[in-house]
Amino acid sequence: MSGAATADDRAWGWVDHLVAGGTTPWADWAEAGPPRDRQLPGAQHLEVLRRLNLVRPASPGLAGTVLSTSGAGRGQQDLDLVGVRERAAFGARPVDPAEVSVEELCRIAAGALADLVLAAPSLPAQDPVRTPRPRLRRTRYRLVGDPLLGAAYRRQLVAQGRPPGGRSPRVLLLLTDYASYLADVWSSQARRGNGLGWAGWLDQFVGQSVVPPRVDVLALAELWGRRVGVRRVHPVFGAAEVAKIAGGDVRAPHRLSWAALEAVRETSTALRVAVPEPERRSRIAETLLPWLRAVDDGTLAAPVVPERHHDWVRAEAVRVRDGLLAAGYPVPEGGLDRLLPDLTAPRGEPGDPMNDEQDDGKVLGVMMKALHRGATR
Q1: Three-point CA angle 83, 361, 54, nearest 5°
Q2: Where is the stretch described as Disordered (predicted)?
């Protein structure tokens, strides 16, 4: 048997080991397997499968999904295993799978997650028969401001027979501390599969002379003040203040960690080329987000403002607070100082250029758990 064939047999033995749930690194593997008349999976695919097995053994179906996925977005071609192929004159060199970048492993994991999302059954259409709701005294209101809070509160209030709308409504300007407000705007975009990563998104506008409309709280308040009157625009913080004006019983939504939101964003890149936009957003909301909520156990941080942007975020929070006070909007009982953020988080937060590999490792860890969750749905 030729040397090349022996190397191939060793590689196929390792593939079989991983498909069976094994975790031995390639560098420590020596046993041969039956030869195959097909191309070996890429080294990055095999390393993702090995790391999946470190969480718990992957099912045969999940292993097949990982080994066959094309990955998300632009990345490296399938990499050859070192010791199996000689380095070609062109293209990437053969690698030890353990040396593949975590960023590339995330790309493969995101592609596999997208494949599982597409294979999952869509939720059935809503039953057209409506359950009668009790007749409630209608409170005319609208929810504006923080998009993550707005979507959650609106959904809960509609389910309780208290939909927003009506003429001359009281406008609830949903607020939190300004750093969290920014994070919720980015989070809302990431949940829909749009936009840049957290740090890159902030870099677009922090320090600029013009604040984008989506994060300009004062401009939003002024818009509604012109429509309904300043005294009918109510800055509110938290579910209790919302319920006091709109009625009903509302609770704050579950906030995904920064790493889980990055997993959503990267998986969406793979879905973007596979399905039309409306279906992509629907599958993210109905399938991917529930998987991530189930595995996002609260040990990872929410998006944290990088230290280089602290001064701007503090100054913008003060500008918003002072502008709301000067314009004469009703001040909630707890005051408007709640807009001022606590930016005393430790160094090395998500988005720190010195911390990219560690950040990617956290994202990959969430993806590993979500892959297992999706495969056992």
Answers
A1: 65
A2: 337-360
* Element (DSSP H or E) covering residue 103: helix 102-119
Asked if 114 and 144 count as a contact pair (C-beta separation under 8 A), the reply is no
Q: Are 116 and 58 in contact (CB under 8 A)?
A: no
Whole-angstrom distance, CA of residue 230 vs CA of residue 324: 10
Rounded to 5 degrees, φ, ψ at 235 are: -65, 130
The candidate with the shortest Cα–Cα distance to 149, out of 172, 130, 169, 117, is 172
- β-bridge mates for residue 143, sequence order: 172
CA distances from 193 to 99, 233, 295 (A): 29, 31, 19
Q: What is the pLDDT of residues 245-268, one digit of tens each?
A: 998 899 998 889 999 999 999 999
Amino acid identity of 73?
G
**Tokens at residue 69, please?**
């996925």
Q: Are 70 and 78 in contact (CB under 8 A)?
A: no
Closest CA to 373 of 261, 299, 297: 297
Handedness of CA 45, 47, 51, 53 (dihedral sign): positive
**CA-to-CA dists, residue 196 to 191, 202, 251, 264, 306, angstroms:** 12, 9, 29, 12, 15
Q: What is the DSSP string of 232-246?
A: GEEEEESHHHHHHHH
Say which residue the tokens 């913008």 belong to: 316
**Nearest CA to 49 among 66, 61, 33?**
66
H-helix or E-strand spanning residue 174: strand 170-175
Residue pLDDT, tens place only, 2-47: 444 478 889 999 999 999 999 999 999 989 888 888 888 999 999 9
Is-above-0.70 flag for pTM? yes
Domain boundaries, the chain: 1-132+257-301+355-377, 141-255+302-345
